[in-house]
Structure formats: C-alpha cells, structure tokens
Amino acid sequence: MRVFILATILVYAFLGGSGMYVAYFDEVKANPKAGNHCYFVGGIVVKMGDIAGLEAMMTKLSEDIFETSDLLTETEFHASHLYFAKSHFRGMPIEKRLEIFRRLGEILNHRDKIKLVYACINTDKLYSGTNAAEQAFMHFVERVHLSVEKDSCALLIGDLDDQQARNMVSDFSRYRTRGTNSKYGVQIDRVVDSVHFSRSHHSRMIQLADVYLFFLSGMHQPRTGTWRTS
Question: Which CATH number applies to 2-50+114-222?
C-alpha cells in the first residue's frame, strides 16, 4: 500500500512539478454523551518539496523521545494517547508529554510549508437522516480544492484506521465527476486521483494531521482533568 501511494505521488509530481500538494487528513468524531457535537475532518496540505523537511523534524523528535527513527506503533505520536498517557506514553511524566506537544506545535507552526485545512459539522444542527461524516468529508475536500492554486493539484492521504475509508473513496469519486452537493457546490478538479490510505504509524505526516485535529477539537470542546490543572 505504502509503495503504491509513493509511486502515485511521484507520477503526479513529475507531471505537475512544483504545483503538487499532498493533503494528509484524519477525523475526530462527535461525542454527544460528553457534550461534544462537533464532527471534524481536517489535516495538513503540504507541497511535495516540503514533505521531506517536515518528516525530518518529526524523525528528530522520534529519535529524541524513543531513541529510534523506526515507524512503529510504539513510536507513533498519537495525540490522544499522548494527552491521556495511554499506550507507550503510559507512565511518562506530564512535563515530558507537554514538551512533546510543544515541539509538535512548533512543527505545525511552519505556516510557510503547511496549510491547515478542516471542516467542522455541528451534529446537533443537522436534519434527521443527514450523515455527519459524509458532510464533514465533503466540506473538507472543497476546502482542500480551494486551498491550492488553480494550476496546482493535491492528493488525499488519510488514516487507514478510519471506519469511513470505503465511503470516502466512493464519495470522492462522485465529487470529481459531478461536483459536491453542498449549498453552492464545487467542481473538484484540483484534488486528483482517488483517496489513498495508510496506517497512521507508517506516516509521520498523518500523525501531524492527527495532532492538529486534536489541538483544534480541544479549542471547540475544552478538555478537563489532570492535564488542565497541572
């Protein structure tokens, strides 16, 4: 899967030159029981030529924290696990976890290299029968399309763990042929090919997209607990 995605990116980069972007994305589901009615789909849009530099920053962080650059589940920067001290962050002091978040935030702050794009759907305001996941993904695709220059194109790469993966492929194909079905509709011609997926622990860029969405969702629904009081 990873080899196929890389080959696709290289083909489009060869054809499109410096105008080729990759949009790495993830989702944060609504949790009405906890009072959170926001469904997010979002991530980072990066020019091909800037990906290696950002990956190098993430690799250096991995080496500093885990003493290895290997892409493993045990070296993944999963924001919720980091925040709640789960999985391989269990037992890590809160000061060290905060420092990791700070460094991840610094990487995301390279706004000359990263476009931050998201869509948020308020599930409690949807008409009955409306699919929040589909609506959030549709608006995200529209915003990725609008975020790149008219003579450029972007490729979508999402987290393979996403339960909506199959639906996203089908929906995206429809957007490209018939446009989106939002209020004004957008003909999607700057986001190309299909929607590709990779395991998040295989991609530092997907991990960075996950961290961005974690920050973003926290702004809409402030988190409580030990972290905020420490």
Answer: 3.30.420
pLDDT digits (tens, 9 = 90+) for 58-104: 999 999 999 999 999 999 999 999 999 999 999 999 999 999 999 99
Cα–Cα–Cα angle for 102, 108, 112, rounded to 5 degrees: 135
Instruction: Give the pair of three-digit tokens for residue 21.
Output: 């972007």
Report the C-alpha gap between 230 and 213 in whole angstroms.
22
Q: What is the pTM of this model?
A: 0.88
What is the number of other CB atoms lying within 10 angstroms of the CB of residue 83? Answer: 18
- Within its chain, how far is the Cα of 37 from the centroid? 19
Residue (of 97, 213, 94) closest to 158 by Cα position? 213
User: In 10 A of CB 151, how many CB atoms?
Assistant: 9
Q: Where are the alpha helices (DSSP H) in 33-131?
A: 48-66, 79-84, 94-108
Cα–Cα distance, 44 to 62 (Å, whole number): 20
What are the E-state strand segments in 79-180? 114-122, 153-159
Give the containing element (helix H, strand E) for 177: helix 165-178
Q: Are 139 and 8 in contact (CB under 8 A)?
A: no
**pLDDT per residue as tens digits for the range 15-26:** 445 589 999 999
**What is the maximum alpha-carbon separation in the chain?**
52
Q: Counting Cβ atoms within 10 Å, is residue 147 exposed (0-12), middle (13-18) or buried (19+)?
A: middle
